[in-house]
Amino acid sequence: MKTYLICIASAAMLSACGGSSGGSSGDAGQPTTPTTPTTPTTPVTGQCQSSAKSVQWDKVIAADAQNLADYQLFSNPCDPTQNPSARGLAYDLSVPLFTDYASKYRFVFIPPDKKAQYHASETFDFPVGTVITKTFTMPADTSQRGIDHERLLETRLLIKREGGWIARPYVWNEQGTEAQWDLTGENLVIDDLKHLNESFNFTYAVPNQNSCTTCHQFNPNGDDDAVDGVDPTPAFFRPIGPKARYLNSDYDYGQGPENQLQKWLAEGLLEGLPASNTDIDSTPEFSDSTALADITASAQLLQDTSKAWLDINCGHCHRKEGQASNTAFRVDWNIPWLGNEQYHGACAVAVSGAGESSIIIIPGDADNSLLYQRMHTQEPGDAMPPIGRNVIHQEGTALVKAWIDAMDPSLCSL
Amino acid sequence: MKPTLQRNWLARNSSSNASFHSRVLSKRSLALVIAAASLAMSGCGSDDDDDNDAVTAELNKAFNCSASDTSGQRVVCIGSADDLTDSKVQDDLIAALATAQSGDTFVLPQGRYNFTSTIEFNGLVDNTVVSHLTFRGAGMDKTIIDVSGASADGFLFNNTDHLIFEDFGVYESNNNALKVTKSNGVIMRRVAAVWETDYQSTNGAYGLYPVETSNVLIEDSYVKGSADAGIYVGQSDKIVVRNNVAEKNVAGIEIENSTLADVYGNRAVGNTGGVLVFDLPIGNGKYGSGVRVFDNHIEANNAPNFANVGDFAGGVHIVPPGTGVIILSTSDVEIYNNVIKDHQTTAIALTSYLLPDDQVASAPNADVGGLDGNDATPAVNSYGDIHPYANALLDGWSPLVRNIHIRDNAISVAAGIDNPQGSLIEDIVKGYQLFHAFYPDITAGQTTVPHILYDGIGELLTNTPNPGGAGETILQAVTGGINQVAAALDANGLESDGRQINMALFTTYNGDGVCQQNNGIDDQTLFAASVFETTPGAHTFDDSGSPQAKIQQYGMDTTMVGRVMSDPNGVMGCPATPFDGTPVTVTFDQQSYGCTTDDSDSSSCAL
After folding, report:
1. Which positions ≥6 away from B361 have C-beta within 8 Å?
2. Of B195, B145, B157, nearest to B174 (Cα)?
3. What residue spans define the domains of chain B?
4. What band does B568 get if pLDDT is binned at 50, 70 and 90?
5. pTM given for the model
6. More confident residue, A319 or B318
7. Which residue is closest to B216 within chain A, CA to CA?
8. Contacts of B206 in chain A (CB under 8 A)
9. TM spans, by residue (chain B) (predicted)?
C-alpha cells in the first residue's frame, strides 16, 4: 500500500518522505521542508544531463512510477519547465489560476496518432494516454522568474486512462534533482518571497492526492437529475485549464508569438477546431504584470477580465456542476453576467457561514462584499479558494475590487 | 400591470438591519421605552463555569487493530503498533483514502492526534467511484483528532455514498468539524465535535454538518462550542437526529431547508438557542417541510450569542439568547412532548421571514427592460431585479409559517429567569416591558414575553385585503405582482424559464397557522401570543398604513390587554385536525432507522 521510497540521507528532512518512514520527527504540526528561494535549485552535475528521451507511454498508463523521471517526459530529468519529449507541447492560459505567486509550467503530451477533440466551452476531450504536467516553482523575487531563479516545488500529473482522468502529485527534493510520487501532501516553508516591495513568509501546501478531486470534479447536470439521492450522471474527474477560451491566445514557442490553438492543430494534437477564429471563444489576458488602469479604462474589458479571473480561480467549484453548487455564488464564464447578476452573487445572500458581510457582491462596494472579503483574507476557514492560497493575490483582488466598485449600486435597490 | 399597494409602509428602501418593529413602535412609544427602567442586558446568561473540559489532557495512545484484506470489507489500520506519531496517523489516513476501495473500514487508534491538513475525500479514487466507507475510532472520548492545524474543515466528504463515522472526536476545527455534502446515506454515531474554549466567536462554524444529503442518521453524538450550529442538517432529505447532546453552541441542533426530519431524544442545554428549524431563501430549489421535534430535553439555552455577526437577515447571529425552540419561515412542523425549561427569553419562538426582513413585503418593480422612460426606476432585466426575494419566491420559497402544531410540551421557567433579549426582537421585548410597566397587575414572577411567541405579521399580511385591490390580500398582491412582471420578462425574452410563484403558498390562512394545545407549565399561566393580530381589526394599521403591534393598540382597543400576553381561543387555537407529522425512515443499504423501524418500540416513538 505504501508508495514511499527511502529518503536519501541528505534529504532526510525533505518532502518526499511523506512522514511515513524513519527520520521524521513525527510532529505533524511542523512544516517539513525549510526552503530558501534565495538559493535556487542548483542541479548536481551528472544527475541532470540532457539527452534524447521518449515518453514511456506504458509507464504513463500504469501511473505508478516513484520517480517522475521514469516517465521520460523531459530531456533533462531535473528540468520539467522546458524541452519536452516528442508529442509534448508547452501551453499557457490567458488567465492563470493563482497559487501563492508560484510560476507554473504546463505541458500536454498526447500519444502518437491520437488527437484531442475540440470543445467550444468545456475542457477538450483528450485521448487515452494523454498526460498533462503542471510544474510549480517558487522564485526568490517575483520580478525575476525562470527556472534559473526558481526552486522546483511540485509537478502534478493528470493522466487519461480508459476509465478517465487520474492525478499523480510529485514533490521535488531540495536539490531539485528528483521528484517523488507523494500521496499525502507536504507543507513547504517559504521564507522571504519578494513581491514588488513586500516580503512574504508563508507555508506552501502541496495538496494530497485526494485533494485533487476537490477542484477537478465535474458533475454533469449537477444534482438536478438526482432521483431519491441517486445521481444518474455522477461526478467525474477532469482537467480545468485546457479550454478553448484560455488557449485562444499567443505563446512564444521560440519563433515569436503564435496562437496556441493553431499550434496544437499544426502539431497534430487537436481536431475539430473551427476554421474561423471568430467562432472560438477567448478571455481577455490577465497576469500579475497587467496594468489595472488598462483594464479599467473599458467597462466591458473590466467585466470580462474579472469574470475570466473568477472563472479560472473559482469557477470549477462555483458552478452548478461543481462542488460549491449549493452556495449562492456561481461564476462560470459560460453564463453571461447581464441578466444573471444574482446568479453570480450580486445582491445575493450567502447560504451559510458568512464572514463580516453576508451579501456576496454589493454593487459599488467591494469592501463590504463577501466575495472580496473571502479573497482578501488569509484567515483559515474564511479564505477562498480553500486550497492553494496562503497568500493574498494582490493583483487579482485589485481587479475584482475595481469591477465591483464600478458596478451601479442601483442594481440591488428596488 | 403593477399591483397597487397603497399601504406605504411597504418599505422600498433597503435597511438591512432595521427590524420590522423599529418602525412599528412610534417615536412616542420609543421615548417611553427609553425612559423606562433600563434593564441590565448582561450578555452572560449561563450559570455554567467556563472551565475548559480537561478530560483530554491525559489520553493514552493505543493501537488496537487487525487489518483484513477481505475484498469488499477490508479493514485498514491507521498508525501502527510501533508508530503512533501525529504525522504517521495523519498520513496513513490520507494514503488509505487515496487508495480506498468500496467497503473499507478505517480504524483510528486511541489517543489525541494533531492533524495539519483537512481529511478530504470526493468519492473517486483514480476516477473510480468509491462508496461504503466506515471511519471508526476507539470512542468519542478516546480517539481525538485535533484539526486546529488544518486551514479549513477537519473532515470534508462529498459525492460519497454510504458513509459511517463512529466513535471518535473532531476537535478545534478552524471551520467545520465534519462536513458531508452530496451524499446518500450518512451515519454519524457516537461522534464528538468540540471546541474546548467556551463562547468564542473564533470557534468553527458547524460541528456535525451534512448538507445536500439524503438518508442521514445522527445519533448518540456530542457537540459543544460551535460558533454557529453544533448539529446542522441543511438542504437534505430523510433525516433522523436522535439521542445526541448539544451544549454551549450558538444553535444546538438546526434543521435548515430540509424535508422529512425527526429530531428526538436529544439534550440541548446551555446553547444560545436550543433547537432551530429554519427555511431560508437560498434560491436552489431546496425548501423545508415535514419536521418533527419531540421528546427532547431543551434546557437553559441562555448563552450569549457569540456568532460572527453578518448582515444576513436570517443568520444565526439573530438567535435571541434564551430561546428553546425557534421556527423561522418553515411550514409543516410538529413540536410535541418536549421538556422546554428555564429559558430567559421565550420557550418557543415562531416567526415568518418578515420579522428579520420586512423587504419581503415590498412592492415589486415592474419597469421591465427600463421601458417606463423614468431613469429613476431601475430597469428590470431579470427575475432578481423584480424584488429582493423574487428569485427565492419564484424558486418555491415561502416566508410564512404554516401548519405548526405545538402540543403536549412541558414548559417551565424557574424563578428569576426572565431576562428577554436579542436584537431580532429587541423592540418586541421593549414593547412588552413597556406593557408590564403600564400593567402592574401582570404578576411579579411572570415572564415578560409570552412563553410561546408568534410574530403574526406574515399571517396578518396574508389575511389583509390589499387596499384598493380586487380582493387579493397584501402578500398576494406582492407575489401576484412578481408573477406578472416575471411573465412580462419571459414575454420580452429577458428571461426564458417561465417561472411563477406558486400562489397556493399565499392563500388566506384557514386553520393552517400556528396552533398550540395541551402545553403544560409549572405553577404559572401559560402565555402563548402573537405580537401582531393575525386578522385585521379597527386599529390594526395606523393612519399612515403601518401595522401596529397589539401592544400599541391597547389605548384604542380595550379588549387588547388580555390578548397581549395570550391568545386564548384565537390566533393559536387548533383546528379539528391539526398538522400531524409523518415518521421519517432513513434507509442505509439493507438497514433502516427511525420510529417506523429500529426505534418503533421506543418511548419517544410511542408519543
Report:
1. B10, B11, B354, B461, B474, B475, B478
2. B195
3. 71-194
4. low
5. 0.88
6. A319
7. A229
8. 352-353
9. none
